[in-house]
């Protein structure tokens, strides 16, 4: 309970609650669009840069096993979530694949909130966790398209089976803004090394929590606009949006423990596994699987999973990791 309260009373979470409350009350509070876009670019680049700096410090060999395990985890989450949505939820193949891709991919903001929580509590974590975020961004989205069996360009003759235009989709998946900023920032941090980290620390490291607070303020307003859509997604998707992150979080923590991460690192891998993408996945799936209903995935992610993770999930994953590592 103390950990839950300490997380809820951080400036980042309180900023999210302020935006959520203001939006629910009909306030005209909004972060200017240009500033919000700038914050998005800043947060993604800062996360990537910090991860690259840690890779330069620790070496590529250290992240090989955790990196492979993280990618496999994202693909597994996408696959089993698709099966649950199809068999139990009775969603169409397109909707199931789109929702599963959102949950198999990751949320940089949820990850950033997890880092802020650990920093506030003084809990160390493996520095290369930022690199795992970049690695987990796209594979689940690509698998989602494969599961859907469709992309923008499909074969039109009856004698041919539908095929995916991989050149088109890989370009959409790997050249999107979030992927370029995460991977590009990571490469810059890695190549510039310790001197580059010291140069950029006053800009990218110190103000990070303040920038995240403004971002979450706006995201709270955006979430409030989705609350009315909860009636349309049904009780199954509401339960899915809470239970699946918990299951995924436990899987991430267990894998983190198995590949040798510390308590903080396992907590962050659990956070990544429990999170769901609302930046890269919606944009990619809207292009690649236009038949899917975006309201289903966005409502589940923004109105259910994200608030749950920010308020309750993060301290829950930390407690689970502490319990596992103490045994």
List the helices and strands and how they pair.
Blueprint: H1 2-8, H2 11-24, H3 33-58, H4 60-87, H5 93-104, H6 108-121, H7 129-136, H8 139-148, H9 166-174, H10 177-205, H11 208-226, H12 230-258, H13 263-274, H14 280-288, H15 294-325
Helix pairs in contact: 1-15, 2-11, 3-7, 3-10, 3-11, 4-5, 4-7, 4-8, 4-12, 5-8, 5-15, 6-13, 6-15, 7-10, 7-13, 11-15, 12-13, 12-15, 13-15
What does this protein look like?
With 327 residues, the chain is mostly helical. It has one domain: Na+/H+ antiporter like fold (Up-down Bundle). Helix content is 79%, strand content 0%. It is built from 15 helices and no strands. It is globular. The two termini are 21 Å apart. About 3% of the residues have low confidence.
Biggest beta-sheet profile? none
Radius of gyration: 19 Å
As residue ranges, the low-confidence spans are 150-159
Shape verdict: globular
Distance between the terminal alpha carbons, to the nearest Å? 21 Å
CATH topology: Na+/H+ antiporter like fold
Structural class: mainly alpha
Our estimate of the beta-strand percent is under 5%
**How many individual domains?**
1
CATH architecture: Up-down Bundle
């Amino acid at each position: 309970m103390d950990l839950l309260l300490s997380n809820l009373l951080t400036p980042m979470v309180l900023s999210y609650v302020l935006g959520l409350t203001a939006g629910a009350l009909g306030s005209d509070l909004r972060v200017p669009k240009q500033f919000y876009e700038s914050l998005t670019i800043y947060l993604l680049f800062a996360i990537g840069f910090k991860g690259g700096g840690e890779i330069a410090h620790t070496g590529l060999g250290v992240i090989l096993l955790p990196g492979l395990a993280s990618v496999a985890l994202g693909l597994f989450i996408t696959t089993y979530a698709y099966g649950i949505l199809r068999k139990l939820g009775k969603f169409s193949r397109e909707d199931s694949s789109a929702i599963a891709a959102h949950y198999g991919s990751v949320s940089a903001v949820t990850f950033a909130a997890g880092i802020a929580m650990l920093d506030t509590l003084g809990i160390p974590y493996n520095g290369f966790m930022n690199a795992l975020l970049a690695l987990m961004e796209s594979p689940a989205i690509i698998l989602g398209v494969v599961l859907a069996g469709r992309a923008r360009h499909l074969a039109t003759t009856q004698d041919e089976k539908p095929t995916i235009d991989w050149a088109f989709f890989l370009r959409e998946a790997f050249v999107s803004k979030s992927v370029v900023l995460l991977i590009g920032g990571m490469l810059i941090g890695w190549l510039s090394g310790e001197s580059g980290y010291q140069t950029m620390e006053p800009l990218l490291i110190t103000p990070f929590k303040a920038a995240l607070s403004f971002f979450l303020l706006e995201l709270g307003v955006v979430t409030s606009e989705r609350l009315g859509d909860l009636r349309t997604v049904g009780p199954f998707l509401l339960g899915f949006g809470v239970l699946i992150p918990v299951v995924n979080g436990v899987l991430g923590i267990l894998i983190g423990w198995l590949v040798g991460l510390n308590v903080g690192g396992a907590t962050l891998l659990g956070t990544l596994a429990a999170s769901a993408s609302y930046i890269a996945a919606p944009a990619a799936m809207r292009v690649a699987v236009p038949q899917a209903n975006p309201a289903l995935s966005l409502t589940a992610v923004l109105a259910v999973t994200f608030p749950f993770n920010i308020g309750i999930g993060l301290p829950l994953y930390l407690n689970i990791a502490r319990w596992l590592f103490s045994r």
